[in-house]
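call fold(seq) -> tokens
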Amino acid sequence: MPTYKGAIRLFQISGITVFLHWSWFFVAVLELQRQSVYTSRVWSLLEYLTLFGIVLLHEFGHALGLADTPTTSDLMYPGDNETVHALDEVPNNKCSANDCASLRAVYSMPTDVIFYSARR
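ret:
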């Protein structure tokens, strides 16, 4: 199984290879062993997998060219546990207005535009 800097390759989609760092497994074990608010560990596992899905979608947003946003209901908000609850407020599980506008802006730009990052 190919690895990259302590991460295990899961799959590839549209040319983007998805790796999972070993620490996700470590935290999963801790998460499943702690006293949970759920009556069954299955619910804890489903919650953990949902969190993984949200992080995965957020990272795919970066792969598509989106930056982090300050709005907590955006998928691109670099958040915490509150982000999961804020995403529930997005109607019909569609991307938020900010995320959709960002995607439209990125993919409607002329191809000859050059961006320079202020970060060094």
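The longest helix spans residues 41-63.
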